[in-house]
Design a protein that fits this description.
Layout: E1 2-4, H1 9-20, E2 26-29, H2 32-38, E3 43-46, H3 57-61, E4 66-69, H4 82-100, E5 104-108, H5 120-133, E6 138-144, E7 147-148, H6 153-162, E8 166-170, E9 175-176, E10 179-180, H7 181-193, E11 200-203, E12 209-210, H8 211-218, E13 227-231, H9 233-243, H10 253-260, H11 268-274, H12 287-324, H13 327-336, H14 344-361, H15 368-389, H16 404-417
Parallel strand pairs: 1-2, 1-4, 2-3, 4-5, 5-6, 6-11, 7-10, 8-13
Antiparallel strand pairs: 9-12
Helix pairs in contact: 1-7, 4-5, 6-8, 6-12, 7-11, 12-14, 12-16, 13-14, 15-16
Length: 426
């Protein structure tokens, strides 16, 4: 068994399930070293769809019965395009599989994929499906709806939306038919050995519902009665185009267009493959972890707010030190703290510049952990200097020194919660 996109949400889950059933699995991944660290014990091969797959893959595929293409991206980046990941790479892989004598391919596409669809994501998926359909052996094109997984990036986003007491939604949002990852994977496993699999099948859950109803199904009872603000598409689309340019944004204009499009299908064929009832959306979050999921979603929503408040604190401090507080009073404080008078102006503006730099640098993801450590170190140094030479500030009625304690706690919390490896699996 060969699975491209082996470290993605679906590819990884499918590989684990197949191995449980005794199948040998080879995972095609972009970064073999990184994949080996995150999935020790699995068998990997370098396969980067942003370039042309190496023809030597033919030798590797010679002993493979089934090729599953689970590679995919939801948003394009400077290094990954829809054309590379959804069309050129898979088409070449299917050609190599045919040369190697592979008997069956399973192409994981997307519900809504059509050659003349509204979004480039859907159109690229449809072009990849067309390549799959040209394969000489057995072909199965699977088109999943929204896939729910506790740690999936889209599911985490929906959980975060689900806990909001006030929810903006596009006025023309269509229905969705989400499927649980376990139900999707069980159906894919069945397709691997199905004697006469369907050529095209929608992988959808048993219930079609509006986005607001889906979010209510993910919510704890405490936020089921939220205020929903319906935003006209003429306003929502320009706003989404602006938001998608922000660092780390999960919002895009194409995602909004897909949300506005009805995304439903007959669930009976997939339920027949799985061989049991499919989970309803209100069963996606297990009762035992529903409250925990709620708390994690609230925390995830608060992190940008906490980060912004910390950044503004450092930035305003820099501004006040450099331009607002009387310079003579600032220099007097520095001299009392054992800074030579001749160096006091340099120390004042250097400290203000450092505060401003730390305020801005924390918005660069790869610098964040280092910045938090510097902020903690600087606060400790400032506190030690003030405690030694300006101890009266501990007794100041506005509590400037005491307020360092929650600042230290907040910075430590952000440091602790910041992922050392960037974003998780989609």
């Amino acid at each position: 068994m060969f699975i491209s996109g082996g470290t993605g949400l679906i590819g990884k889950a499918l590989a684990e399930r197949l191995e449980c059933y005794g199948h040998g699995v080879i995972l095609g991944v972009r970064d073999e070293a990184e994949a080996s660290r995150s999935q020790p014990g699995a068998r990997f091969v370098q396969l980067d769809f942003t370039g042309r797959p190496d023809p030597s893959v033919v030798a590797l595929l010679a002993g493979v019965d089934v090729v599953v293409n689970a590679a995919g991206i939801f948003n394009e980046t400077s290094t990954q395009s829809f054309d590379d990941v959804h069309v050129k790479g898979p088409c070449t892989l299917f050609d190599l599989a045919a040369q190697a004598g592979v008997k069956r391919i399973i192409q994981i596409s997307a519900l809504g994929a059509e050659l003349h669809a509204d979004t480039r994501y859907w159109r690229s998926k449809a072009r990849g499906d067309r390549c799959a359909s040209a394969f000489a052996g057995t072909v199965v094109v699977v088109r999943p709806s929204l896939v729910y997984a506790a740690l999936g990036a889209s599911s985490v986003l929906f959980q975060r939306l689900a806990v909001l007491p006030w929810l903006p939604l596009p006025a023309t949002a269509g229905e969705v038919q989400p499927i649980h990852l376990d139900d999707l994977v069980d159906g894919l496993v069945a397709l691997v050995q199905h004697p006469q699999p369907p050529q095209l099948v929608a992988a959808v859950g048993p219930v079609a519902l509006g986005m607001d109803a889906y979010l209510r199904a993910l919510s704890p009872a405490a936020v089921k009665h939220r205020i929903v603000w319906r935003i006209p598409m003429r306003v929502a689309l320009p706003l989404a185009k602006f938001l998608q340019k922000l660092p780390g944004s999960t919002v895009s204009a194409d995602a909004l267009k897909m949300l506005a499009h009805p995304n439903t299908a007959n669930a009976a064929p997939w339920a027949a493959l799985v061989g049991r009832p499919l989970r309803r959306p209100d069963q996606f979050v297990e009762p035992a972890r529903r409250q925990q999921a709620h708390q994690l979603a609230v925390l995830a929503n608060m992190l940008p707010v906490l980060r912004l408040s910390l950044s503004l604190t450092w930035l305003i401090t820099a501004w006040v030190s450099a331009f607002v507080y009387p310079q003579a009073a600032s220099l007097d404080l520095l001299v009392r703290a054992q800074v030579p008078l001749v160096l006091a102006p340099v120390a004042l503006y250097t400290a203000a510049l450092l505060d401003a730099a730390l305020a801005l640098a924390m918005w660069v993801r790869r610098w964040r952990r280092g910045v938090y450590l510097l902020q903690i170190g600087l606060m400790l140094v400032y506190s030690a200097i003030i405690s030694l030479w300006l101890p009266e500030y501990w007794a100041h009625p506005y509590g400037p020194m005491v307020k360092n304690l929650p600042m230290l706690a907040l910075t430590a919390l952000l440091l602790w919660l910041e992922s050392p490896n960037g974003r998780g699996t989609r």
